[in-house]
Amino acid sequence: MTAFFQNLGMSFEGAWFLSTIIGILVIALPVMLAVAMLIYADRKIWAAMALRRGPNVVGPFGLLQSFADGAKVFLQETIIPSAANKTLFIIAPIITFTIALMAWAVIPFQVGVVLANINVGLLYILAISSLGVYGIVLAGWASNSKYPFYSAIRASAQMISYEVSIGFILICVVLWAGSFNLTAIVESQKGYYGFLNGNGFNPLLFPMAIMFLISAMAETARAPFDLTEAESELVAGYQTEYSSMAFALYWLGEYANVILMCALNAILFWGGYLPPLDWAPLYYVPGILWLFAKILFFFFVFSWVKATVPRYRYDQLMRLGWKIFLPTSLFFVFLVSGFLMLTRYGGAQ
Amino acid sequence: MIHVLAFYLFAILVVSSGALTILSRNPVHSVLWLILAFFNAAGLMVLLGAEFIAMLLVIVYVGAVAVLFLFVVMMLDIDFAELRAGFVDYLPFGLLIALVLLAEIVLGIGLWSAGPIELAQRAAPVNPELSNIQAIGGLLYTRYIFLFEAAGIVLLVAMIGAIVLTHRARGGVKGQNIAKQNRRRPQDAVRNINQPTGQGVEL
């Protein structure tokens, strides 16, 4: 796209700037639209699993429900508690929302269709997701209220614990692909046994795929790990004091993170924009459709779990993270790197 | 042009947030300014082409270390008046440290303008084809492998030391044994009896 603007007579830098801005909008606006539609889908799925109808009043089949909710929230008054730290109270949801959108910069939608095709793509995602905790901790502290503060403490402990095992799981994938670049990671998943695309079909990486799915739920604080918003214990957690658009920003950021994690599941373990079978006719379907189909499948798994699994207790959550996921993923780092040393990198020398 | 703009943006933000770290009255704000300084320093690293170091800076310092700082500072009950009281006592010492740092900066810039240092032999010629990560990994796991592992052992010892110092066995704690719970079956736990009326149950 930079070349296109240069042909219109702009300097390279101006063209680069303009095309990057357009790229950001082309990714961010559909993500926001997807968030609105997926909130609706989420509610419909829970409703179906609980034998209810779900939203069905606004628009055909209730399709416009999310937009109606958005308009309602937008028109409400923003209430700032008098004891709150005003600046941080307002900045916190903005941080959450911005960070949720930032990570999309390195997601490849198709061969070469990526905003920033950087060498350290996966590290960038890890860095951005480690920032996510600030939005919640700041909200908890700035609200100057007990429940949000408890929630903030829980959230930061939970996110840090699961980031450790997510890091090890990502290392396994990176070792196998030999690169941190997400496009290279997707391309490396071509042709398992000659006809399958996806690291998940690799017996060494399949357990990692399952663990990543569970860790992703914990990292985004989705049920059954939604202890930060456990309404039976903490009212609404860190969002208790928030109203209007500030509340909506948390909501949007949370769902954008969930979609991002679904996309990462698809990209790291199930072939991203590649079709599931390495069979020539399937490549005529645009890669972006395969990616979307996989994201939607994982989103369905997320809401399926949310509809059916009871919430974890906090000590069980910590036990799962530190005593089970951490040793297992560390063991798999040894296993995968040892296997690669013996086979791909020439064995003992 | 964009590079220059980005450099000045990051540089100004690093310096000003560094200054605000020590100037702000609220310790939580100080930590937040420090985080902003880390983040912009990472931006400067990206401009230098050291994207791997930049990402590590964000992951390790912003994502882990600063969260712990923030945590500790938020939890502490800090008396601001007491915090300011020692200012005059520490002033001479602080000035001394500032002087030492200033002298080092002046010396460093002076030596740098005197010309580059001629190394007899480059420690490791850099291959421009390699990416950052590969170049660092290649050095770290070959030439500096023993130093790298020694650093790892030091950290391990420090971690074990911290656990040993703070861990205490508490009595009267009900632990949950999940394997035992999962092994439990209805026939181990429930018993059907035909109890005549008017008599107590013997267990």
UniProtKB/TrEMBL annotation, chain A:
**Per the UniProt entry, what is one GO biological process?**
aerobic respiration
Which coarse location class describes where this protein primarily resides?
membrane
Per the UniProt entry, the Enzyme Commission number(s) are: 7.1.1.-
Please provide, alphabetically and separated by semicolons, the GO molecular function terms listed in this UniProt record. Answer: NADH dehydrogenase activity; oxidoreductase activity, acting on NAD(P)H, quinone or similar compound as acceptor; quinone binding
Where do transmembrane segments lie in this chain? 15-41, 88-109, 121-143, 164-184, 204-225, 246-270, 282-304, 324-343
Location(s) in or outside the cell: Cell membrane; Membrane
The membrane topology noted for this protein in its Swiss-Prot or TrEMBL record is:
Multi-pass membrane protein
A cellular-component GO term for this protein: plasma membrane
Recorded catalytic reaction(s): these are: a quinone + NADH + 5 H(+)(in) = a quinol + NAD(+) + 4 H(+)(out)
Keywords, alphabetical:
Cell membrane, Membrane, NAD, Oxidoreductase, Quinone, Translocase, Transmembrane, Transmembrane helix, Ubiquinone
Q: Which domain of life is it from?
A: Bacteria
* Entry's family note: Belongs to the complex I subunit 1 family.
Role this protein plays: NDH-1 shuttles electrons from NADH, via FMN and iron-sulfur (Fe-S) centers, to quinones in the respiratory chain. The immediate electron acceptor for the enzyme in this species is believed to be ubiquinone. Couples the redox reaction to proton translocation (for every two electrons transferred, four hydrogen ions are translocated across the cytoplasmic membrane), and thus conserves the redox energy in a proton gradient. This subunit may bind ubiquinone.
How does this polypeptide assemble, per the annotation? Answer: NDH-1 is composed of 14 different subunits. Subunits NuoA, H, J, K, L, M, N constitute the membrane sector of the complex.
The name this protein goes by in its record: NADH-quinone oxidoreductase subunit H
Recorded source organism is Sphingobium cupriresistens LL01
From TrEMBL, chain B:
The UniProt entry's GO CC annotations, sorted and at most eight, read:
plasma membrane
Membrane topology field: Multi-pass membrane protein
Subcellular location per UniProt equals: Cell membrane
Give the main EC class: translocase
Per UniProt, the ranges with Polar residues bias are 192-203
Give the EC number(s) listed in the UniProt record: 7.1.1.-
Gene3D superfamilies from the UniProt entry: NADH-ubiquinone/plastoquinone oxidoreductase chain 6, subunit NuoJ
Q: Extract one GO molecular function annotation from the record.
A: quinone binding
Membrane-spanning residues: 6-24, 31-50, 56-78, 90-112, 144-165
Read off the Pfam families from this record. Oxidored_q3
Q: Which InterPro entries match?
A: NADH_UbQ/plastoQ_OxRdtase_su6, Nuo/plastoQ_OxRdtase_6_NuoJ
- For region Disordered, the annotated ranges are 176-203
User: What family name appears in the similarity comment?
Assistant: Belongs to the complex I subunit 6 family.
* Main function: NDH-1 shuttles electrons from NADH, via FMN and iron-sulfur (Fe-S) centers, to quinones in the respiratory chain. Couples the redox reaction to proton translocation (for every two electrons transferred, four hydrogen ions are translocated across the cytoplasmic membrane), and thus conserves the redox energy in a proton gradient.
> What protein does this entry describe?
NADH-quinone oxidoreductase subunit J
Organism name: Sphingobium cupriresistens
